[in-house]
Amino acid sequence: MGVRISASRLAAAVSSAGCLGVVASVGTGEEWPDRSIDYVTRSYLSLKDMIQKAKDVSSRPIAVNIMCALNNYESLVKASVAVGVAAIISGAGLPLSLPGLVGDSGAKLIPIVSSGRAADLICRTWSRRYQRLPDAFVVEGSLAGGHLGFKMEEAQSAQCESDNLEYLVKDVLDVAGRYSNGGTENIPVIAAGGIFDGKDIARFLRLGASGVQMGTRFVCTDECDAANEFKEAYVNCSKEDIVVIKSPIGLPLRVVRNDFVDRISSGERIDFKCQYRCLSPCNPKETKYCVADAMVNAYRGNMDMGFATCGTNASRINKIVPVKTLVDELVRDAALELEKGMC
Ligand SMILES: Cc1cc2nc3c(=O)[nH]c(=O)nc-3n(C[C@H](O)[C@H](O)[C@H](O)COP(=O)(O)O)c2cc1C
Predict the structure, then answer these.
(1) What local confidence, expressed as pLDDT, does residue 182 receive?
(2) What is the model's pTM?
(3) How many percent of the chain have pLDDT more than 90?
(4) 242 lines ligand 1 (CB under 6 A)
(5) Which atom number of ligand 1 is nearest to the Cα of residue 5?
(6) Residue whose CA is closest, atom 21 of ligand 1?
């Protein structure tokens, strides 16, 4: 989760608790102390440093999330490989060139898709160009946080359609079933978006998913790298406060409504100087605010000049807990639910 919401501290805590912790690579250069070097180099150095710090704390594998829409995508992939990341999770576009960038580094490659069609295109392209298949797919539904791979209307209406992700998971499972890694195993499918508790996890495992990716719930943990104000925005919000806005890159973005969100939604221009040219679909001359600035400000706790992106379930969270407590609760409740099904 970017910008820096899931940095080394959260990723290490999640991995140490037995899951796969993910370092977000977006906006990493912002905090690098030496401002005399260019943003791409700062981001490269900072991402390497963040992954290494997580690896130093946890003896278990650490993954990285790199969005295809980032202008410095290639450089961030190289930084991750250089520091021996275990897996690269990549969405917000189709990571068609990813295998060529990682070579034989051994990093597992996990595209994020929102349809079976996208999964199929990736499998076909990777097999033809690189003779390899994804090591897993994350299937992200429209209840997720961050930028969403759906049309605006779909993302808005999805707030009451809880079965959407189930349909997508089945769709991608079908595609995964047609391809296989080495002919012995299907490509594992990981469900994401709106998964809140152990019951939800069990539901997707029963459906055939091999795991789940969760974001929103892990924001409200002691170890989450965001400022307390960001976490409190989740704890204090109601269902009605969670809205979908159009991001400057044209994609829907789910956020907790606040004064800043009202200002940009009413068309007000928030002056900015484009410091990063971070997202390739963004045209800084036309956009009315800088989404990177808004996210960096929120991560630092300045909610007057930013917003907290969140999944639909953020309003159900009412306290901040240690990662281990959350993971233990999720695993216990999922196991109980699965046992029930077996009786
Ligand atoms: C604060 C926040 C930041 C996120 N940042 C990213 C990101 O940088 N890249 C990405 O691919 N997905 C991002 N996401 C999506 C999550 O990785 C995850 O797939 C999704 O939120 C899962 O749904 P959930 O939040 O309902 O559990 C973000 C989500 C949140 C809540």
Answers:
(1) 56
(2) 0.95
(3) 78
(4) no
(5) 1
(6) 145
